[in-house]
Amino acid sequence: MIIGVPKEIKNNENRVALTPAGAKELKKQGHTVYVQATAGNGSGFTDEEYKAAGAEILPDIASVYKIAEMIMKVKEPIESEYSLIKENQLLFTYFHFASYEPLTMAMIKNKSVCLAYETVEKADRSLPLLVPMSEVAGRMAVQKGANYLEKPLGGRGILLGGVPGVLPAKVVILGGGVVGTQAAWMAAGMGADVTILDLSLPRLRYLSDVMPANVRTMMSNEYNIRTLIKDADLVIGAVLIPGAKAPHLITRDMLKVMKKGSVLVDVAVDQGGCIETCKPTTHENPTFVIDDVVHYCVANMPGAVPYTSTLALTNATLPYAIQLANKGWQKACKENNELKLGLNVVKGDVVYKGVAEAFNLPYESVDKYLA
After folding, report:
1. What is the pLDDT, as a whole number, of residue 318?
2. Quick one: 97 and 209 in the same domain?
3. Are residues 17 and 155 in the same domain?
4. Among 36, 159, 248, 362, which is least packed by CB within 10 angstroms?
5. Paired strand residues for 33
6. Are strands 32-36 and 293-296 parallel, antiparallel or unpaired?
7. Which CATH number do you get for residue 262?
8. Is 248 noted as a catalytic residue in this protein?
9. Which are the contacts of 205, defined by CB distance < 8 A and separation ≥ 6?
């Protein structure tokens, strides 16, 4: 198979979808790998390293899309890329379709095959290609939240862990999945007073067992959320419904009861956000203020630490990429249900229910293409 790796062009996105080590593995399997010039620079990988691994370097993004049968990316294509995508071309990347209708409609129109990292799912319901970036984002959420609690950046002027004789900050985490768990560990390690909410009692029992003493658990419901955010210094939104839009757990009216200079970090913003007032921001302009509450809503948080993020992501994606390249997407998805669940849009049809429901679009069973 001919595999293309374009340079990411989303604002401040420095990750790359394939490392030189990954290129070498694909080459060993008999595949051809084309990498756009300087695609790996932001993550610390040079064109020379890709060449040494057996990849070929192409000068621009159009050349990569033109020649490749499978495109490997990190973030969803942006508008300038839509016209470059060919009919029947396989795109293997994060899409988060349910949060952005124009992207969905563009991929339907170009009749490409869209296999989304975020909906590849194991039998135990875990999301192996979302986990690495969720781990990064959960830890970063606390780093960023602590930073924006500083007075010069608009925050209350409170140190997350406090000092002897001064109480630490109160951190509320909505969601006890991978993001929430990593955020809780990070906040607890910095000495904060942490409360984590989730809908699952078994999950809360697990978290109660493994978390340090400064982390408490609570059932997630509107009453508890409203009560907790009144005293919260930092609130982290870490809710995920695979392939679907995140529910709004904090609504606009709730901001009025929050402390002036408190901080909201919505990690779910690339799935529409679990905080109603959040809208996607960039690393260039990461925050805005509503009702004296600082909102941090960067949609590609792991892009700020591209070396760590690229290695973590490609460790997870490469085995799946090899299956797709070796067998072709239809055979690979027929034989591996995890990959099958990653298919979102195929040749003009929406084949993932969460995406169809988000925009009231017709839903087609993916089995139509795997028979």
Report:
1. 98
2. no
3. no
4. 362
5. 3
6. unpaired
7. 3.40.50.720
8. no
9. none
Final residue of a domain: which of 299, 322, 348?
299
Characterize 315-337 residue by residue with b for buried, 16 or more Cβ atoms within 10 angstroms of its Cβ, and e for exposed.
Answer: ebbbebbbbbbebebbebbbebe
Residues 6+ apart with CB under 8 A from 210: none
The answer to whether residues 276 and 125 touch, using CB atoms and an 8 Å cutoff, is: no
Three-class secondary structure assignment of 57-122: EECCHHHHHHHCCEEECCCCCCHHHHCCCCCCCEEEECCCHHHCHHHHHHHHHHCCEEEEHHHCCC
**Cα–Cα distance, 201 to 253 (Å, whole number):** 28
Domain membership flag for residue 352: yes
pLDDT at 144 over 70: yes
Mean pLDDT of 340-362: 96
pLDDT of 244 strictly over 80? no
State which of 299, 331, 346 marks the end of a domain. 299
Mean pLDDT of the chain: 96
Q: Are residues 19 and 111 in the same domain?
A: yes
Q: Which among 193, 198, 266, 270 is annotated as catalytic?
A: 270
pTM: 0.85
Percentage of residues in the chain having pLDDT higher than 70: 99
Tell me if residue 209 is catalytic.
Answer: no
pLDDT in tens, 263-311: 999 999 988 889 999 999 999 999 999 999 999 999 889 989 999 999 9
Domain that holds residue 232: 131-299
Radius of gyration of the CA atoms of the chain, in A: 21
Residue that has been written with the tokens 């875990």 in this structure? 126
Task: Name the active-site residue from 96, 198, 295, 349.
Answer: 96
